[in-house]
């Protein structure tokens, strides 16, 4: 198999760095994929589970655009609904009836949630959730998990990031995942002043293995929140619709007060949602929160079509099955080459890591060799499965993995891992 080269991507990037800070800022920066020379920078086209870069290289996307793609790129059902809505109206001077329809659909679908509020990005609604929790309780502190990510607002970004002040974190308290005692301790240290607890359904720290909730963890957190009057917020922005259409809280058997959705809600059209219980509705109404494009009807029409299609396909169950099949075979294949591939999290959204080399270089080399052959694997972040990852796509992926294992095995034996 020939490996890819990226001359056109590089030429565009050389132009970009002159006019855009970092060239490609944020999570799609080439700096996050190591070695950068193994990865494309600009995409030109997409279809199903695939995208093509500006050099014409074809990739099976195991990042799904970092999560939003769940039904395959350019899904005809979703894109058709979006086009029909665009022919009628998108942003006008009034809200769209689609907003009512979408809120009703979500309320019918998501367990225990009685209302929905729409914005654009995930961070819009995690921030709103914290404001609602503070308004509802009259308290200041937000408890979050160490290594948990909820967006780019200063109180959510890690301390030490440029532009973030210590004051921004005065009211953010971080505790370890799966540590109920730490939650109790932090409440005792700030009596009557904890407004909310926010966490993802399971822990997905960048660069580390994913961690599922311990048995009983969420139920215990819920019980403490109820006893102490703390608002329980699930950040389902990444996991949402990849575990259970009724909410990841149903998958893990507990009831939150607020749930945040974004990534896969509209298969790539820009929309996010905060959902909440009846008790939170008036509190949400009190908080002023809005944005220039939050009332666009096209993403709402896309979301309606996306949810309908996900339900029709029983998508979470299907993605969990495809993921179990693929990652099980990948683990066995790795073992055949004498490597240990560790798969953590749930199979529709797992973290995958070769553990044989503590420096991480072996894992980076394998991901790079796979990517250069057409299976886009990030080495620092969990991967995503979509309904477009069908059996044929999985078989092609495994053939690429096999060749990449041979390459890194030979390189490791010759002591030449870094490329
Ligand atoms: C769990 C989680 N919460 C919040 C966010 C923030 O979403 P956005 O980047 O759309 O603001 C992300 C984004 O990756 C996320 O994964």
Automatic annotation (TrEMBL):
InterPro entries: Aminotrans_3, PyrdxlP-dep_Trfase, PyrdxlP-dep_Trfase_major, PyrdxlP-dep_Trfase_small
Molecular function (Gene Ontology), one example: transaminase activity
Cofactor(s) needed for function: pyridoxal 5'-phosphate
Alphabetized Gene3D superfamilies for the sequence: Aspartate Aminotransferase, domain 1, Type I PLP-dependent aspartate aminotransferase-like (Major domain)
Swiss-Prot/TrEMBL keywords: Pyridoxal phosphate
Keyword Phosphoprotein part of the UniProt annotation: no
One Pfam family this sequence matches: Aminotran_3
Cleaved signal peptide residues: none
Family in the record: Belongs to the class-III pyridoxal-phosphate-dependent aminotransferase family.
PANTHER family from the UniProt entry: GLUTAMATE-1-SEMIALDEHYDE 2,1-AMINOMUTASE (PTHR43713), GLUTAMATE-1-SEMIALDEHYDE 2,1-AMINOMUTASE 1, CHLOROPLASTIC-RELATED (PTHR43713:SF3)
Annotated protein name in UniProt: Glutamate-1-semialdehyde 2,1-aminomutase
The organism's taxonomic lineage, starting at the top: Bacteria, Pseudomonadati, Thermodesulfobacteriota, Desulfobacteria, Desulfobacterales
């Amino acid at each position: 198999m020939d490996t890819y080269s990226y001359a056109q991507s590089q030429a565009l990037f050389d132009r970009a760095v002159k006019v855009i800070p970092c060239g490609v800022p944020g999570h799609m920066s080439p700096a996050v994929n190591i070695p950068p020379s193994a990865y494309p920078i600009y995409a030109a086209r997409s279809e199903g589970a695939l995208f093509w870069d500006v050099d014409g290289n074809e990739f099976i996307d195991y990042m799904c655009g970092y999560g939003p793609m769940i039904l395959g790129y350019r899904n005809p059902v979703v894109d058709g609904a979006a086009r029909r809505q665009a022919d009628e109206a998108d942003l006008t001077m009034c809200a769209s009836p689609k907003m009512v329809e979408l809120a009703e659909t979500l309320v019918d679908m998501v367990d225990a949630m009685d209302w929905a509020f729409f914005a654009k990005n995930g961070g819009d609604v995690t921030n709103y959730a914290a404001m609602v929790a503070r308004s509802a309780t009259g308290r200041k502190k937000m408890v979050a998990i160490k290594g948990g990510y909820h967006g780019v607002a200063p109180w959510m970004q890690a301390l030490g990031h440029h532009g973030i002040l210590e004051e921004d974190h005065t009211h953010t308290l971080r505790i370890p995942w799966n540590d109920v005692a730490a939650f109790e301790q932090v409440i005792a240290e700030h009596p009557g002043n904890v407004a909310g607890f926010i966490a993802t359904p399971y822990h997905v720290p960048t660069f580390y293995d994913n961690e599922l909730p311990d048995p009983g963890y969420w139920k215990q957190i819920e019980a403490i929140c109820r006893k102490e009057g703390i608002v329980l917020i699930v950040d389902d922005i990444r996991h949402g619709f990849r575990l259970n259409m009724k909410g990841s809280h149903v998958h893990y058997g507990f009831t939150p007060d607020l749930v945040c959705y974004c990534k896969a809600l509209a298969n790539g059209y820009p929309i996010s949602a905060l959902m909440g219980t009846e008790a939170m509705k008036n509190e949400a109404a009190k908080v002023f929160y809005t944005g220039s494009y939050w009332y666009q009807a096209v993403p709402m029409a896309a979301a309606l079509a996306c949810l309908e299609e996900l339900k029709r396909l029983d998508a979470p169950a299907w993605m969990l099955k495809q993921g179990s099949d693929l990652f099980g075979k990948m683990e066995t294949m790795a073992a055949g080459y004498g490597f240990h591939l560790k798969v953590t999290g749930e199979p529709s959204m797992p973290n995958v890591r070769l553990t044989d080399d503590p420096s991480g270089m072996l894992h980076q080399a394998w991901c790079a060799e796979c990517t250069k052959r057409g299976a886009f694997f990030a080495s620092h972040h969990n991967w995503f499965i979509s309904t477009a990852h069908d059996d044929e796509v999985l078989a092609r992926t495994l053939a690429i993995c096999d060749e990449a294992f041979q390459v890194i095995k030979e390189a490791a034996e010759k002591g030449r891992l870094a490329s």
